[in-house]
Amino acid sequence: MLEIENLKTNFNTYDGVVKALDGVNLKIEDGEIFGLVGETGSGKSVTCYSALKLLPKAGEVVDGSIKLNGEDITNASDERLREIRGGEIGIIFQDPLSALNPVMTVNEQIGEILVLHQNAELQKLALEKEIPTFKSEKWKASPGVEFTIMAFCISFISLFVMLGQWRFSLPFLFVIMLMFLRDYLQRDNPASALDLMVIDALSRVKLPNPEQIANSYPHELSGGMQQRVMIAMALAGKAKMLIADEPTTALDVTIQAQILQLIKDIQKEENMSVLLITHDLGVVAETCEKVAVMYKGKIVEQATVEEIFSNPKNDYTKGLLEAIPKGGKERLKVPNLEETSVL
Amino acid sequence: MKEILKLKNLKKHFPVKNSWGTDVALVKALDGVDLKIESGKTFGIVGESGCGKTTLMRTLLRLVEPTSGSVILSEEITGNNFSSKNLEELTSEELRNFRKQIGVVFQDPMGALNPRMLIKDIVSEPLVIHGKTDNVRSRVIELLENVGLGEEHLYRYPHEFSGGQRQRIVIARALALDPKILVLDEPTSALDVSVQAQILNLLNDLQKKYDLTYIFISHDLSVIEYMCDRLAVMYLGRVVEEADTDELFSNPQHPYTKALLSATPSFDKNKDKIMILGDVPSPINYLDESKAKLATEITEQEKLEISAIEGKGIDYIVRSSLNEVIPLVQISDGHYARVRQQ
After folding, report:
1. Which of A51, A206, A307, B342 has an alpha carbon within 20 to 30 A of A315's alpha carbon?
2. What are the mean pLDDT values of chain B's consecutive 10-residue runs (342 residues total)?
3. A biological process (GO) annotation for this entry (chain A) (predicted)?
4. Nearest residue on chain B to A326, alpha-carbon basis
């Protein structure tokens, strides 16, 4: 599915060049959950941003190749990359509240992805059901606009009443009446194809009342719901691969278990590949099939999950596993990073 | 077994006001917490976000006033040889004395350190405030050496240190006045596992050296199991289970404790899984009778999740079933839980 060969990424800073990635080799097969573990600054996230060309200005990929389904995307055009991001590869970030746009409803945010990546599907659905494609016929403005209209109408009414010309206030009264009756008047108007697909995307991630959630803003949802919306967004473009960058770090353990279960279920249903980036070895043990351990911009060990936890080969991996408290009160072993073989 | 602190039916309710300024609801952040904290031991508090862990810590420090109930200090803290005292009744002079006895370490060390102050000023600030101005420099160096730093770090700023070193500085500052109690609010959740191991070892060493009492708040059960002697599990402002750590981990009674223990990711793939379904409930209690009680019926979200995991052999607990208030009963010696008696 995704093949990364000898990837080297540098960051140019005032203090010199930081070699964030120093020859990373990764191969993610179709339909597997692949874990990428490492500590802060080891280059986990940079690996995924380099693969998608999402690096900040200071970062540049200096060497290596990235292949997606056999196609070399190392030097792909911006247009092709836009197709890939959100289309073939969906991404979930750590903190859902900062990844979601606070001034757009869930409906608008997922709709954006559907319009960009699923336009053909949308047109087909609209033709089949004979409903409008994008905009529902229902008239509804944002709360701010509605408030402004209402305020204008009321001020004009009071102005004309004060002037003794109450007849002129009648049209404004009519507008206010229409606003109150709006929902009743347009009760039979059909939802658009876009609305239907958004609701479909939301119900795939097991969200209750998808119609209601589609019309709410991110801050109105709980942390677990926000992360579910993020997953729905990542999957909306019919992604074949999901990159999850610390998807559960901001969540409580019980909610974390729910989200991991959801990711596992969806992966199985749609036979996707998942690249799970995390610093929590327990999460990896529970979800992944294969795992790679990163340290200082290199992959120091790569194996199946059973192997890495029962028989770690690399000194750094061993140290990392020993540093986790596992019952018992003996003194924790602190990995002596300066003496490990990777340096 | 000597108590150093005792919480008696502690309640803290925050009012929720509507736009007219009248109270419409109460957030019961703490709703009748009874705890006894033993001297020289580590007492752990676990629970999810919004369950009242932090409010408990703040009431302990008297940063917020409790709605009702009391914190009773033993003579060890009050310094009086004969009497224990209620935290609320302390005069301002006594409160200053009390604050000397209790140190705090917060979750995010960068947020707890003033970025424009030198390390020597940060660590010596409590000494200066409490008037212990002789030999400040040697005392600061001693404190830094206690936590594995040294004299060469005196004239540096917080940003020049790594996350683990910053947490060490915060610990050094908390120890500056020789406190009896150290409140640790998620001290390692911002750190990597290898650094976490260093900090936990350091905390254990310091406890032995100075005979400190720790109140350890965390959501990481492996850390809690390693550090704590006794443990209280909180849910929606109440303690739902309290026991010695070994007993609680081997014989959990409350359904939430069971789910929490099994939700923690572990290396053991064959472990029995109990999923907890549904979303974290809102702790708001409406004063209006019709909305007053937290819903105990199965919600839409839970129905969906049940249908999703059906037939996969996963045990589950529905979160709305936990909203009911059940009195605390004794399971065995020193083990209490809010479960129905058979």
Report:
1. A51
2. 85 88 86 89 89 87 88 78 73 85 88 92 92 89 90 91 90 92 88 86 91 90 89 90 91 89 75 77 73 67 77 77 82 86 70
3. peptide transport
4. B222
Going along chain A, which residue ranges are E strands? 2-13, 16-28, 33-37, 59-68, 71-72, 89-92, 241-245, 273-278, 290-295, 298-304
Fold classification of B3-253 (topology level): Rossmann fold (3.40.50)
- Note whether A208 contacts B301, CB cutoff 8 Å: yes
A:202-221 residues touching chain B, CB 8 A cutoff: 206-209
How high is the pLDDT of residue A178? 86
Which one, of B34, B43, B36, B6, lies nearest residue B214 by Cα?
A: B43
The answer to whether the Cβ–Cβ distance between B277 and A206 falls below 8 Å is: no
Q: Which residues of chain B are at the A interface, by a Cβ-Cβ cutoff of 8 Å?
A: 48-49, 163, 192-194, 196-198, 200-201, 204, 219, 221-223, 225-227, 249, 259-260, 263-267, 269, 275-277, 279-280, 299-301, 303-305, 308-309, 314
Domain limits of chain B? 3-253
Low-confidence stretches of chain A (pLDDT beneath 70): 135-140, 188-190, 328, 336-343
The minimum CA-CA distance between B168 and chain A, rounded to whole Å, is 16
Subunit contact B305:A324, Cβ cutoff 8 A: no
Tokens of A14: 């005032």
pTM: 0.82
CB of A245 closer than 8 Å to CB of A279: no
ipTM surpasses 0.95: no
